[in-house]
Design brief:
By secondary structure, the chain is of the alpha+beta class. It contains nine helices and 20 strands. It has helices at about 5-10, 90-115, 135-155, 165-170, 230-250, 255-290, 305-315, 345-355, 375-380; strands at about 5, 15-25, 30-35, 35-40, 50-55, 55-65, 70-75, 80-85, 115-120, 125-130, 160, 185, 190-195, 210-215, 220-225, 295-300, 320-325, 335-340, 355-360, 365-370. It is elongated, with a radius of gyration of 33 Å. The mean pLDDT is about 95.
């Protein structure tokens, strides 16, 4: 087994380094490269691995397996050769901000409610954290405010390796029976936790955290959050959406909520007028079919609910079966069909088979759609 010196623990800001290739193994997809030392962080502790290059060759991921640090590359590297390593720093620093922000928030939630962080996923868009108990959006907002206050105090992050005896007496979050080399990360005023990940050296480098949502998940809750530049990107996106809405509603950007509320009121009023007009139309249309036997009705531009209402209204005054069809934008037809005290199941099955349709319902009232022309529909009902 090859031992690799972990430069990321000595200097988390090291972006470039030189190392000797100890091993290069061919794999189904690319190569596994082992170096004598590396600044590439391997996937672990909920944090994705670093990416970058070795002598210009892409490093797609880094994994630790059985104590060896494996750099997965797209091309081979010569064993014994010294290579220049370069970390994708923008990615690394983003992950440092996300991970450090999560520590502060998880620590404050543990302090406030006693809940454990039972699941953590650092995605490319948002961070999801699962907690063992419930809290609401108001409580989440309070945690967010406190977390940002701690970040802006810009205290130095403490990383240390306690002895076995010191570890037993140390209070830290998610304390478990750990042995050997244990790395403790402390954010003063917020969190102390065992962690192998990369973190900022001062809390202020996180910039800011934004807690986006909290929903019930299993026995507790799942929270989504952002840290660092992702918060700025998110706020810029929200601001741009709000600006576009304000332009469409002819409202000031800080007055869009009130403008939307007014629009909703107007929409509610218009819906009431539309429903009244629809009810009047259906009543008048149904009256035309009073006393008719087995009416077949075609109406333009009706929604499915309107087709059903018209069918039901006509049924009150017609004789036998009633069927109403209305054309869809794609040329198909939606339909509703009913018969008082009747059984339309077999007839509906034949209709759907003949007219390439689908639908069903109760024995005396069915609805669905058919892929057929008006001429084909009329021909079926004449048979």
């Amino acid at each position: 087994m090859y031992e690799t010196k972990r430069l990321y623990y000595e200097d988390v800001y090291k972006k470039e380094f030189t190392a000797r290739v100890l091993e290069c193994r061919s794999r189904k997809k690319g190569y596994e490269v082992i170096l004598d030392e590396t600044a590439f962080y391997p996937e672990g502790g909920g944090q994705p691995s670093d990416m970058g290059t070795l002598d210009g060759i892409a490093v797609t991921e880094v994994q630790e397996k059985e104590g060896e640090l494996l750099h997965y590359t797209v091309a081979p590297l010569e064993v014994g050769k010294y290579v220049a390593g370069k970390i994708d720093w923008e990615r690394r620093f983003d992950l440092m901000q996300q991970h450090s922000g999560e520590h502060i928030v998880s620590g404050l939630i543990h302090e406030a409610f006693g809940y454990e962080n039972v699941g953590f996923h650092m995605g490319s868009d948002v961070i999801t954290v699962d907690f063992s108990g419930a809290f609401d959006e108001k409580q989440m907002a309070e945690i967010e405010e406190k977390a940002n206050g701690i970040i802006w105090e810009n205290a130095a992050v403490e990383i240390f390796y306690p002895s076995e005896e010191e570890l037993k007496n140390l209070e830290y979050r998610s304390k478990k029976e750990l042995s050997g080399w244990v790395r403790i990360v402390r954010f003063p005023g917020a969190d102390t936790c065992a962690c192998c990940g990369t973190h900022v050296t001062h809390a202020g480098e996180i910039g800011m955290v934004k807690l986006l949502s909290v929903v019930k998940f299993r026995e507790g809750v799942r929270m989504e959050m952002l840290s660092g530049k992702r918060v700025l990107d998110y706020l810029n996106m929200v601001n741009e959406q709000n600006r576009q809405i304000s332009m469409k509603l002819s409202a000031k950007p800080d007055n869009t909520a009130q403008a939307v509320a007014r629009l909703q009121e107007e929409n509610f009023g218009l819906k009431g007028q539309v429903h009244a007009m629809e009810a009047s139309f259906i009543a008048n249309e149904a009256q035309k079919w009073n006393g008719c036997e087995n009416p077949l009705v075609f109406e333009e531009g009706m929604e499915a609910s309107g087709v059903q209402k018209l069918t039901d209204a006509i049924l009150q005054g017609c004789i036998g079966r009633c069927a109403v069809f209305s054309k869809n934008a794609d040329g198909s037809y939606k339909y509703a069909m009913g018969e008082k005290d009747g059984d339309l199941r077999q007839f509906t099955k034949e209709l759907n088979t003949a007219l390439n349709g689908r639908g069903g319902g109760r024995s005396f009232f069915v609805q669905g759609s058919v892929q057929a022309t008006e001429k084909e529909i009329r021909a079926f009902f004449k048979n």
